[in-house]
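fwd from M.: "can u put these together and see what the complex looks like"

so here's what she sent:
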Amino acid sequence: MSAYLEETLGWGNFTIFAIAAIAMLLISLGIVTYLIYFERKVIGWMQFRHGPTRTGPLGLLQSVADVAKLLLKEDTIPKKADRSLFILAPVLAYVPSFLVLAAIPYTETIYFANLDVGVLYYVALSGVSTIGIVLGGWASNNKYALLGGMRSAAQMISYEIPLVISVTGVIMISHSLNLRQIVIGQEGWFWQWNVFPQIIGFVVFVIAAVSELNRTPFDLPEAESELVAGYHVEYSGFRFAFFMLSEYTYMIAIAGLTTSLFLGGWHAPAPFLEFIPGLVWFALKWAFCIFFLFWIRATLPRIRVDQLMSMGWKWLLPLSLLNVFITAVYLELVR
Amino acid sequence: MIRTEELLLNVGPQHPSTHGVFRIVVKIDGEVITEATPVMGYLHRGTEKLAENLNYTQIIPYTDRMDYVSAMTNNYVICHAVETAMQLEVPERAEFLRLIVMELQRIASHLVWWGTYLLDIGAMSPFLFAFKDREKIIDFFNEISGARLTYNYMRVGGVKWDAPEGWLDRVREFIPYMRKQLDVYATLVSGNEIFMSRIKGIGQYDAQTAIKYGLSGANLRCAGVKWDLRKDQPYSLYERFDFDVAVGTNGDCYDRYLVRVEEMHQSLRILEQALEQIPAEGEIMGKVPRVIRPPEGEVYVRIESPRGEIGCHLISKGKAEPYRLKFRRPSFVNLQILPKLLVGETMTNMVTILGSIDIVVGEVDA
């Protein structure tokens, strides 16, 4: 991959990258399909249920059937909606979620872009999705959707900042914004992973990341019991699917980002376990992060909007700043 | 200059958190409610008017459909009213069976409330936990009455069916199981930080306000008023049992939650004693004339349903049908405080407060 990246752009490497991107899109769609299946199974087991069992063997085709259903559904656009923005919003929400996948190093050799500003690229693009959500809420011309969209905007502002600052500690330790370099810096035993020296940053990051994903306990923009379905209440068919797709793609991405930043990426927890391929370790850590998200969804109730705001500004932000301060003092002392 | 305007938001009748076809029109400024107007009547079936053309046995299934989450207590109140008017004796075993199903119903009803309330707050698992255990109670009802929701179990002068073989033993075994489950619920939810911050201090009122609005049940007791008809105006056999009345202090959503959870524990205590004392043999139907004709006059009885004080005002002209039948429905009365509680709260708290009042729309609209 890296050899192609360093060549000048020509038809040859352009085609290769186009094919790789399409392959990645299909892979991510496949993962999302079975992520939803996995989520429904896991939450089902936690609630004394079976989850999907009927469609296909062990219910394995349930998500496929759901996607097919959404594709066949009538695509309605409300009469009073802002038509062009209504159509644009799901695209705007989905595209960045797919683009951020490029920055994540899956193994030492498998990655799509070796960006020197990888972390910044991720954070900047993931902010764009919120614009898609706000637009979707606004363009629907529905009061519930509008409330959901506004909540999403407020939530993004309160949580994007602690998220970025919590990552700053990692960047300071690794002396790099390049995700690949950050992972390489965590080689060795598992206590050399960033999660241990950066434990405060990690906790803030996890909370802020869950909030970024709009998942329980921070699923306020689509709070079903209050706002019916929030920003996507007027969406149907595949436009609705795009919103869901972007949510799940972000889950893939944030789990990948957590793995790379804090859990040592493709590295094994101990040097003598390095004979197992890096992709397996990455997948295991990634799957644990995903499972964690499902786990808290089955456990916790939803937090209130004003509590969410005060937690973001009064707790997470000072904590993440404290983390930066401690890291800076530590680095100064060590040097 | 930012121009802001009030938003008129129509919540319901089809909204996931209005617990049925209840509608509330709120004016919101940002997310803060400035005015709330409940609109009811979407489920009005005219039970009271229909009852004027039915004989007393025929009315009982209609009461099932009023508070469909707690049909047994509704059955009881109409039977109790007619029995009081006619001064009928109910055999002891029948009265015990009635009491057992009523207390089981109280637990089942509170479980539905518990699960749906947490669903309103955004936690999904407790809902399924609660319904799993409620299912066991529903199975008991299914065995004894042949129905899962609208039982039509009680009759004027007794009950329709005796307990099937082994039924009482199974209920006996259920009590320790349910106690254990209630502890599981407590560890799962009651101490949860997010949950407590969501409901503590929300929807608060004092005892005076509660009495002024005519609230009853957990909505009254949460404010510190110790008033439970089972204790203060005993009906059925409640005098014979030893139990406590759960009382709160602050009158907020959290106290309503605690009161209802404690009521489940107390119901288990009553059940335990009732199952010990129930006579092993006996009639289940008293001596009731073939055609039930209460003597001319009026009678008002009230009992403690899971939602509060359910009353039945019966006016008879000595015919087989009532001249006028009026139910005091606790859900309807308790709902009247809602507009007052909602002003100044956020949209999120609206769901929390409405859920904590515990209405059943079938009973609100009758």
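replying to her w this: Chain B is about 50% helix and 15% strand.
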